[in-house]
Amino acid sequence: MKQESENHLTAPEVGVLWAQYVNATLTNCMFKYFLVQNEDKDIRQVIDSIQQVTQDKIQRSSKLLQSNNYPMPIGFTDSDVNTDAPRLYSDPFFLSYIHDISRLGLTTYALALTTSVRQDVRMHFDQCITDLIQIDEKAIQVEKAKGFHGRSPYISPPEKTEYIQDTDFFGSFFGSQRPLIAIEIANIYLCSQKNMMSKTLLMGFAQVAESRELRKFFLRGKEIVDKHIKIHASLLSNSDVPTPASLDSEVTNSTSAPFSDKLMLHHTILAFQAALTYYGTTLAFIQRVDISGSYVRLMTETSQYLEDACMLMIKHKWMEQPPMSADRRALVLR
């Protein structure tokens, strides 16, 4: 009985593996399109690498789920991507996208590893982390070589170590505020970078979606993200900290969809889920009350749009139901 129990996947393991399979089939479609449209041989090598890693990840997660007889998610297939569609994004965008995906994946898989128990599952996530570290390094080196990599802000070292003398350090909702500290700069800058990527992605989706309803929905999302970018830019500039470079010019004027509406809407959900993750982490490290209040508002607006996106997925019958625990009450009252 003990051996049988140890062989069962735990709920955290199933949850992450199931979501990983769905999301990996989505990004695999993205990378197929990127490979066809790509013109730069150095960037192509990075795309080749992450596509192979993604396909290996799909096979491993599928095998693990099937080991406990879980039905496989449908995910996304070749029917969700049109590699013959005209170019929608530039080669530099492809590279920035891979860097962004790798960063998010490293965060997700590190947590998945620490919540997994079964040895083969832990080995799987360990391999995912190792692969993404290598991909991220390749992407950054190519970005540097081609001048795409924007340098993160830096600050001058203090003359000596000091203790905080009073509660003015935490600021207030009114009046002058202290400059940002390093950990606040790091998190606000990261959120701004993520929003730049999401805005560019949504700009392209809004141009090419077949459904007028979704074109308007993606445009609304782009406008929300654009507002958030301006809020982050204000927070950084008020402390004389530079903001990340815009990716707006990396979208072409194509109106032909390379991806299905289902894929683009699901990808939008992933982007806003990631934003909530970054905002929540940033909120935990912010030590100025005015900025904390701003992040609560940003998270509320993000959550509302995310809920609306999920409602659209259900409306179009595109949202797969993840594995869930048994409804004991329904079983009793049958």
Model description:
InterPro entries: DUF3231, Ferritin-like. It comes from Sporomusa ovata. With 334 residues, the chain is mainly alpha-helical. It has ten helices and no strands. It has two domains: 7-146, Ferritin, core subunit, four-helix bundle (Ferritin, Up-down Bundle), CATH 1.20.1260.10; 180-315, Ferritin, core subunit, four-helix bundle (Ferritin, Up-down Bundle). The longest helix has 28 residues, at 119-146. The chain is globular and about 60 Å long. Mean pLDDT is 93; it is low at 1-5.
List the topology elements.
Elements: H1 2-7, H2 11-37, H3 41-66, H4 91-115, H5 119-146, H6 182-208, H7 212-237, H8 261-285, H9 289-315, H10 328-332
Pfam family, one: DUF3231
Protein name: DUF3231 family protein
InterPro entries: DUF3231, Ferritin-like
CATH superfamily of the largest domain, called what?
Ferritin, core subunit, four-helix bundle
The global form is globular
Helix content: 55-70%
User: Which ranges are low-confidence, i.e. pLDDT below 50, for 5 or more consecutive residues?
Assistant: 1-5
Q: What's the CATH topology label of the largest domain?
A: Ferritin
Radius of gyration: 22 Å
Number of strands: 0
Give the CA-CA distance, first to last residue: 30 Å
What structural class do helix, strand and pairing data support?
Answer: mainly alpha
